[in-house]
């Protein structure tokens, strides 16, 4: 017997991969994206909470290991990593850049 997934709640972000209606109370207001593994044991996961009654949103944030990063902080780290990779690349070769 297969279960039919519940419809996505109003305001559920397009990146959310959680099946809602499974967790009780506040836990069902958490929206979580698919993990992006940075190493074998460290994943970056986009998440936010959205109150279904008020629409109040907390996030989205990127959770990396046990640290919560704002999207601006995440972008800054991404640009810094690209700058490091570009600095270490052979002369005259740079990869794609973030806008």
**Beta-strand residue percentage:** 15-25%
Give the helix proportion (percent range). Answer: 10-25%
Estimate the mean pLDDT confidence: 85
Euclidean distance between termini CA atoms? 48 Å
Q: How many β-strand runs?
A: 5
Shape: elongated
3D structure, described in words:
The chain has one helix at residues 71-88, and strands at 30-32, 36-37, 43-50, 57-64, 67-69. The chain starts with 29 loop residues before the first strand and ends in an 11-residue tail after the last helix. β2 and β3 form a beta hairpin. It has one helix and five strands. With 99 residues, it is an alpha+beta fold. Strands 1, 2, 3, 4 and 5 form a five-stranded antiparallel β-sheet that branches. The protein has a domain at 1-69.
Looking at this protein, list some descriptive labels:
single chain, 99 residues, alpha+beta, 5 strands
Q: Would you spell out the secondary-structure blueprint of this structure?
A:
Elements: E1 30-32, E2 36-37, E3 43-50, E4 57-64, E5 67-69, H1 71-88
Question: What's a quick, concise take on this entry?
Answer:
This protein is of the alpha+beta class.
């Amino acid at each position: 017997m297969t279960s039919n997934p519940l419809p996505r709640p109003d305001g559920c972000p397009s990146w959310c991969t959680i099946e809602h209606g499974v967790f009780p109370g506040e836990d069902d207001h958490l929206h979580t994206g698919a993990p992006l593994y940075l190493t074998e044991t460290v994943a970056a996961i986009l998440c936010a909470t959205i109150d279904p009654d008020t629409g109040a949103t907390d996030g989205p944030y990127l959770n990396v290991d046990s640290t919560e990063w704002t999207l601006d902080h995440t972008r800054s780290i991404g640009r810094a990593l690209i700058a490091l990779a570009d600095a270490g690349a052979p002369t005259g070769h740079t990869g794609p850049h973030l806008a």
